[in-house]
UniProtKB/TrEMBL annotation:
Gene3D superfamilies noted in UniProt: Aldolase class I, Golgi alpha-mannosidase II
Cellular location(s): Lysosome
One GO location term (cellular component): extracellular region
Single GO MF annotation: alpha-galactosidase activity
Keyword terms: Disulfide bond, Glycoprotein, Glycosidase, Hydrolase, Lipid metabolism, Lysosome, Signal
Catalyzed reactions: Hydrolysis of terminal, non-reducing alpha-D-galactose residues in alpha-D-galactosides, including galactose oligosaccharides, galactomannans and galactolipids; a globoside Gb3Cer + H2O = a beta-D-galactosyl-(1->4)-beta-D-glucosyl-(1<->1)-ceramide + D-galactose; a globoside Gb3Cer (d18:1(4E)) + H2O = a beta-D-Gal-(1->4)-beta-D-Glc-(1<->1)-Cer(d18:1(4E)) + D-galactose
Native source species: Haplochromis burtoni
EC id: 3.2.1.-
Domain Alpha galactosidase A C-terminal: 313-397
Task of the protein: Catalyzes the hydrolysis of glycosphingolipids and participates in their degradation in the lysosome.
InterPro entries for this protein: Aldolase_TIM, GH, Glyco_hydro_27, Glyco_hydro_27/36_CS, Glyco_hydro_b, Melibiase/NAGA_C
Protein name according to UniProt: Alpha-galactosidase
Family assignment from sequence similarity: Belongs to the glycosyl hydrolase 27 family.
GO annotation (BP), single: oligosaccharide metabolic process
Amino acid sequence: MSRAACLLVIISLMSPAAEALDNGLALKPTMGWLHWERFMCNIDCDTDPNNCISERLYMQMADVMVKEGWKEAGYEYVCIDDCWPSHQRDAQGRLQADPKRFPGGIKKLADYIHSKGLKLGIYADVGDKTCAGYPGSLGYYEKDAQTFADWDVDLLKFDGCFMNRALLGEGYSNMSKALNNTGRPILYSCEWPLYEWPLKQPNYTAIRETCNHWRNFDDVFDSWSSVKSILDWTAAHQDIIVPAAGPGGWNDPDMLVIGNFGLSHDQQESQMALWAIMASPLLMSNDLRDICPRSKELLQNKRIIDISQDSMGKQGYRTAKGNNFEVWERPLSKNRLAVAVLNKLETGGPRGFNIGAAPGWKICGPQCNVTQILPQYKEMGVQTQQSKIIVSVNPSGTALLTVTPISSDFTRLHKLNWQGTFVRRKHTIL
Ligand code: GAL
């Protein structure tokens, strides 16, 4: 192949399947904090002032994000979910924040968040009402988009409750246009496919052109069964959803629940590793004011965040499964590969897995360099295709590694990495 043809093949392999929403945002998976899973619709500020949905909560979270290294680690968006507005629109028909819980209003809150070098996200709904029964945006898309822009909001999570499912696409796309027309860059987080799946297979080309990320599946709960169900759904639908992901638009498997109550440390490591492999937004829903040091260290682990934020922006696949192990692999820039090995057996102790059995290991011919990131950081040095490295994986835990090929023959490597590993999507049975 000529040099030019080779370059073309590389460029076409690197571009995502469809055009992303052209607002210049979410070129890497969004990082930040979102209140829902941890704080839900707690509006009782009289008895629970510390945890209720109020301006104080977001201001405190922003303060901690700056002071405790979250911002430096890349977490940028502080996001409000449902239950922030007043039940009535104002005299001009505009949404307004609940006056008791947000006495300063959203514009002032945005100013505060911006003064910390962070960004503010807000929540609304494509239908008549939000899921918790607050005013929906149906009939008010332009007005609400303009209101959010006037308040200097940076992200909108747009839910899909109380909407005629046949009109979801029209609604999501009209709000996308309304946001665009304000002239303010507002990252657009959708739940369109989640609400459409019961009706028909969503059109991911249209979704990618409309939204910066999109929820496909149920809400995450603070439990291992919930995290597992999200992984299972993603693997079962990967051929449909993975090609849609890329710079500007991402599949959203919902919030990180690391640092809460329901996941063991191994399970927290699994969520962090797999969310990085899935090129998911990293939106934590936890209490950053009170989080255990191990969870904090995991959420701020630079090597995992680097996988999540890899510049090539390709989502990974589950590439092999068997013997209660799953292998998930994500192609990274510079022909590298991230490999996650999840031990799904929830009994017994640590089990060994021969990493040479991972389908992507073929990039180790003639040689590769291996770094283990989870459960411990360890340089494993130069390996070959024949190396037998056994990684130990705890029940419901994950071993995470990066593999860097060593070769001067770029073209051959490229073929192996891209065509050998990732065009074939059939599962290997271990
Ligand atoms: C759900 C949505 C959740 C949360 C909740 C608020 O439909 O998926 O993430 O936003 O509504 O009521």
